[in-house]
Amino acid sequence: MKIHVLSPDVYNQIAAGEVIDRPYSVVKELAENAIDAGATEISIEIEEGGKKLIRVTDNGEGIAREDLANAYAPHATSKLKTAQDLFGVTTLGFRGEAIASIASVSKMNIVSRVRGGEAFSLACEGGVCGEILPAAGATGTEITVRELFFNTPARLKFLKSDAQEEGDVAGMVARFILSRPNIAFTLLLNGKVKYRSFGDGLAAALAAVYGGDILSRCYELDADKHGIRLHGYIGDRNYSKPNRTYQSLFVNGRYVVNQTVAAAVTNAYASYLMKRQYPFYVLFLDIPPEIVDVNVHPNKADVRFADNQIIYGTVYSVISAVLDGNSRALEYLVSTSPKQEKIPVGEDIFDPHPATHSAPAPAAVPEPVLPPKQAPASPKMTYEEAKRELEFKIPPQAGQGTVPSRGKQQPIFGVSEPTQREIDAFEENKKALMEAEKKQQRVDPASLEFKGELFRTYLIYECGDDAYIVDQHAAHERIIYDRLREKMEKREVVSQPMLVPFVLTLNPAEFAFLVKQFPVLRELGFEIDEFGADAVKVSSVPADLMKMDLASFFDEIMTSYESLRAIKLTDLLKDKLASAACKAAVKGGESLTEEEVKALLRRMNGDMGLKCPHGRPVAVHVARSEFEKLFKRIV
Ligand code: ADP
Ligand code: MG
Predict the structure, then answer these.
(1) Which among 202, 232, 263 is the end of a domain?
(2) Mutation test residue for ligand 1: of 77, 81, 106, 145, the one with most atoms within 8 Å of CB
(3) Do the bridges between strand 107-113 and strand 133-135 make them parallel or antiparallel, or are there none, so unpaired?
(4) Are residues 280 and 194 in the same domain?
């Protein structure tokens, strides 16, 4: 390993670097360096919230004598040499500036020894280095940082209390323990052990952080979909936490906070948890590195995915399969808690029994339209294969083609914006994958035999060795919702004039913003016009949404404006459609006639994977073997 000083042109391609502003950032950088050095044991000590002392000791590869001074030099790194290397970064650090930054605001000492060599030390105070001296030490590196910010008193003032700084460091070390379950970590706070892990796997790491009984409350899962692997632990259906701090996501080994994944998990739990209850999870998402942009916020632990929908879909479908206990989950479940019964392997519902009736065959799922000359994508296809198949090219890299720009100060690398053609091919591929998946959840409606009704709410069907229980309200809701949405998507909405127009007064910025939305709103069935200088008037609404609460609808539009979120009116309207559908649907507790039962099933078209617009399952599958277990016929 050799430390190189990056040339300015390489360096300048890199986004604004880490800011060393707190003990937290020091510990993070030092621990990441230890991990990058291949350590299997890392010990972290902090005293007085890290203000007095931070020491990170590792048994990694060490720094050779001739590289010690370079380690302190700004923009010096052993982890990459050229701009090209940026596209395949596998180490946590690569900017080569953390040590230099920390050394400039503290009293730092590095003691290091490479395998088979001698130990040497080099101290540095406020950025001024001393001399390299022989030292004593085991193979590996020990970095001590004393009196952080001793020469920048202004920054000292911004630190939180010792206890708060300690809490933040502990939270981060916990995430290191989880994300690197094969490394043994010790965290000492003022000489007391806060965490100790032994590097013996993820289950033990969870226990080290959350206590021994956490495992009995979790499902362990491991899924591979579309070349994306999702594994880890999620709380069972009845386990929740009062806030989000019990949620950890690691993308390609790196802790991140990501709205797409958080929303997918939250929505999968939607029918199990109440408001203000949050699921517990420790999840790992492994994605081909070229489709993740790791450099969005170097400090804010955010990532951007080249395709949010495929990530959302993968996470949502895996988590909900596991929670809803449908038979697909078997592919994903590694183990359940001892108290949870394992979902038995029933007949494969995805291989429907051939229809014996002469009833009409279900409407065929339309074949996905693929770009010409390309074979239909198979659901087993990996991301790599899908890309190759569709000639989805990695966009040109910096220096070879166009450098994507999104603000001058922050060049983005990793993934540049795909061209329209690439997006089209990718969309098609995704559609094909989703259709293929949908197909699998289908059963032939003709093979379903109606067996009766429970509690005037649930309809029972038998199909070979499988039973399905359908929630009539959820099913009806979903059918109405689909119909309304289709009309909206085809822009076939009928406008319904209102007796009394709705007038909304706005401030000038809001007004300008809303006026820009007029064309879309009109297409969706609203008759909306300016009304004086600062108000708008709504005189017609989509007929299906006659009863919607216009005030709250426009409120929501304005909220998205304020938070500068990309506003998607159709999404907002979908919410409104969902509640309209809910009001119109038959309620549980109202018995249906035989005709109505048949009509409902006909319209579900054998799709047992349907969810109601609020995300609850429409049908639940129970295999014969599950009944046999209940009656102890089999174990
Ligand atoms: P970066 O991690 O971005 O390369 P740093 O300033 O954090 O930059 O570290 C500079 C260099 O010092 C690293 O590239 C590495 O060669 C060396 N180094 C730092 N910490 C360690 C360590 N714990 N073990 C081995 N080498 C280290
Ligand atoms: Mg580093």
Answers:
(1) 202
(2) 77
(3) unpaired
(4) no
